Automatic annotation (TrEMBL):
SMART domains: ANK (SM00248). Coiled coil: none annotated. ANK repeats lie at residues 52-84, 85-117, 118-150. This is Uncharacterized protein. The keyword tRNA-binding does not apply. Keywords: ANK repeat, Repeat. It comes from Globisporangium ultimum (strain ATCC 200006 / CBS 805.95 / DAOM BR144) (Pythium ultimum). Pfam families: Ank (PF00023), Ank_2 (PF12796). It comes from the Eukaryota.
Length: 213
């Protein structure tokens, strides 16, 4: 192949990859199908990654593009691959509260309790950022509620410290008395009295139901 043709081929491949990644970010499903099915097939590789090692599947999960997630999974993208920080596509979705993306990835056998390099699970990130939809979806699919990352706090305490009352409500009924006490203490110390009230109301309601039934 002549030098000019080689240069043109490389240029076309670069353009195909750029177009592909832009389509992943902007939910361009038709563009992705066209690229994967035609001239972009050889240029777009499953192991292509960004600066942090993020794959196209991780980018789709980060933006909550469920149709693209499904398409990429069908085309062979790995649901368990990690970026340089140890994060999977599921963790990307959890950090942005994309419950539908979370469900899609779990249905594709994503590990709900996988941790990044700092020992943070998808539930850890969702709770820390106050993403109640993600929290509920992860718990529904078996996320370990009382798992500690390397810093020590469990998701409930992270949520309480951050003032995320709705997440505290979702998690507190699944935690021990000791963990509830730590969460309440942390919330009170941080001035999050609405969290304290929510936690007490939820605990009282649970105890009442247990007593009645």
């Amino acid at each position: 192949m002549a030098g000019g043709e080689t240069a043109q081929l490389k240029s076309d491949q670069v353009h195909a990859r750029q177009t592909f990644l832009r389509a992943v970010r902007t939910n361009g499903v038709d563009t992705i199908r066209q690229l994967l099915g035609q001239e972009g097939q050889e240029a777009i590789k499953l192991d292509d990654a960004g600066v942090l090692g993020e794959t196209a599947l991780m980018t789709a999960a980060q933006h909550g593009h469920v149709d693209i997630i499904k398409l990429l999974l069908t085309e062979g993208w790995s649901v368990s691959k990690k970026d340089k920080t140890g994060a999977t596509a599921l963790l990307y979705a959890a950090k942005k509260d994309h419950a539908n993306a979370i469900e899609t990835l779990i249905e594709a056998n994503a590990s709900v309790n996988d941790q990044d390099n700092e020992g943070r699970s998808p539930l850890t990130w969702a709770a820390r950022h106050g993403h109640v939809n993600a929290v509920k979806m992860l718990v529904q699919h078996g996320a370990v509620v009382n798992y500690k990352d390397r810093r020590g706090p469990i998701p409930l305490i992270d949520a309480a410290d951050g003032g995320h009352a709705n997440v505290v409500e979702a998690l507190i009924g699944k935690s021990s008395i000791e963990e509830k006490t730590k969460a309440l203490s942390g919330a009170a110390s941080s001035g999050h009295m609405e969290v304290v009230k929510e936690a007490l109301d939820t605990t009282a309601s649970t105890l009442t139901k247990e007593h009645l039934y």
